[in-house]
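Hi everyone,

Forwarding the result from last night's run.
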Amino acid sequence: MFSCMVSTMKEKNIVKEFLGDVIEATRLPVVYVIQEIAGTRDGRPKINILGAAEYGSFKFLLPELSQMIFSPGPLIFKLRKGLKDFNEKDYLLLTGDPAIIGVACSIVSDITNGKYKLLKWDKQERKYYPIDINLYEKGKIDE
């Protein structure tokens, strides 16, 4: 009876793992917005990020007034929690405090082994463009 139960548990785990892979493969990209846009609380955001929605659904990681002060531990924990499902199909939208942006990029790089995408605003074209980052890409460094 026990071996029959183990086989059933193994089968359940295999099916569960397979379904998890299928769900992940069909998941639409997410645009991780590092920090809410300044002015959001007042209902008047300073910039319009709706153009970035063509790359995926938004997930906001931190409120607009978040700052990295003397003890970054809690903020890093919150960023790690919010970015735990980040994968190579997703994008970072670099908004807010530059120190927080640096930490978020570091966390994502750690998760994806240095390969990730971010969205860059082009002032002339007035639209976002994706940029592929590969920190370990081999190539010649020009001086």
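Strands lie at 30-35, 57-62, 91-93, 115-122, 127-134.

Cheers,
N.
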